[in-house]
Every structure is written in structure tokens, then in C-alpha cells.
Amino acid sequence: MNAKPLPEGFRLLPGYFDRAGQEALLAAIRKVVAAAPLFTPVMPRTGRPFSVRMSNCGPLGWVSDREGYRYQAHHPETGEPWPPMPGQLDDLWAMVVPNQPPAQACLINYYGPGARMGLHQDRDERDFSAPVVSVSLGATAIFRLGGTSRQAPTRSFRLSSGDVLVLGGEARLAFHGIDRILPGTSTLLKDDGRINLTLRRVG
Ligand code: SIN
Ligand code: FE2
After folding, report:
1. Cβ proximity of 5 and 56 under 8 Å
2. Which of 53, 109, 165, 189 to mutate to test the pocket of ligand 1 (most atoms within 8 A of CB)?
3. Can you tell me which atom of ligand 1 is nearest the CA of 196?
4. For the chain, how many structural domains are there in total?
5. Ligand 1: does its nearest atom lie under 6 Å from the Cβ of 56?
6. Domain-located, residue 180
7. Which CATH number does the domain housing residue 164 bear?
8. pTM of the prediction?
């Protein structure tokens, strides 16, 4: 039982994209990744590789390497500008974040077998007034949500293909992560693959 109310600004929109919408979005992301290949980011200082692979689309992309975390306008390996944001993602942003400027960055996280994402805050943006909006495609994930301090209690949710998650308001700086991917739950991507798309304004 989770007695504590969810933070204001946390919204889970299950099944926002239906199957046809998921397939169309996946096709658009495959085109992005053909131009801007997935790369393996490493942790600042230690150089330890992430278990997820990443790419980006839109004007800015989030990268992590030994120098730190940052946004930049080009792919770290090809040096090319990130491909444009697919129209479906601009439409999603306009629907969920009305009357605001468009998203500036879409991080593409690819989870293969065994990949996870440790508890963290999204705080490399200059401006936290816009929410973070994310889309899940493929295998179901166990998502963990905490509070704005690392010590705060956490709870977990399942994120399934087509679900949209919004972290705004009080939840904008909430710690969150992916504990694990549930095997055998993807009919969209092979080998229990999962893609998460995270839309943000950088400021
Ligand atoms: C992230 O917080 O960067 C990823 C969240 C997710 O994969 O759902
Ligand atoms: Fe995050």
C-alpha cells in the first residue's frame, strides 16, 4: 500500500499511443537512429559505461562522458547535428504541455537485456519550469519514483509500451530510475528491447 499521495505534477497516461501509434513512432525513431547511431555513454570521471545505449533527436541532445553530463547540438561520435524531432513527439509535447515553446531535446534510451537506470534526478537543464515528458516503447519496465532527496521513500510503477509519463511541478526534480525490464513483455521490439524517449526543455 502506498499511503503517501503522488507528488503534484506526476502524471501517468497509460496507453497514450495505441499499437498503430507505437509502430509509427518506432519507425520514426529507427530513421533517427539510422542517421544518429546509438552510442554507449560513460559515467563522468570513472568512465564506467552505462547499461543503456543512447541517441537523441531535436535541436539538443543529452550526452555523458568523462567530462560530465551536458547538452550539445551534435552527435559525440559522428559530429553531425541531431536529426529533427519526429512530428509525433512535437504533437505529444503540444498536447501535454500546452501553450509552451516546443521541446528542445529528445533523449533516446535503448534498454537491451539486463539494462537498467540508477536512481537520478533530471537536472542538467537551466530551466525546470517545463515538465519532463517520456514515452515507453517495447518491453514493460519497473519504474521507481522517489522524492526530491535521495533518501525519500520510493514507490514503483510498471511502464508499458505506449505509456506516457509526465514529471512536472513537484515531481520535476523527483529521483527516478528503472529497476529492471520484465522479460517476455515486448511484442514491438525483439529480445525484450525497450526504448524510452524523454522530451525536455533545456532553457
Ligand atoms: C530516464 O530517466 O532517463 C529514463 C526513464 C525510463 O527509461 O523510463
Ligand atoms: Fe531521468
Report:
1. no
2. 109
3. 7
4. 1
5. no
6. yes
7. 2.60.120.590
8. 0.96
Q: How far does residue 56's CA lie from ligand 1's centre (Å)? A: 13
**Residue 196 · residue 135 · CB < 8 Å:** yes
Cα angle value 48/198/21 (rounded, 5°): 130
Ligand 1 pocket member 159 (CB < 6 A): yes
Q: Is 16 helix (H, G, I), strand (E, B) or coil?
A: coil
pLDDT in tens, the chain (203 residues): 556 788 899 999 999 999 999 999 999 999 999 999 999 999 999 999 999 999 999 999 999 999 999 999 999 999 999 999 999 999 999 999 998 999 999 999 999 989 999 999 999 999 999 999 999 999 999 999 999 999 999 999 999 999 999 999 999 999 999 999 999 999 999 999 999 999 999 99
Half-sphere exposure of 28 (CA within 13 A, CB side): 21
Residue nearest to atom 6 of ligand 1 (CA): 196
Whether the CB of 143 sits within 6 Å of ligand 1 = yes
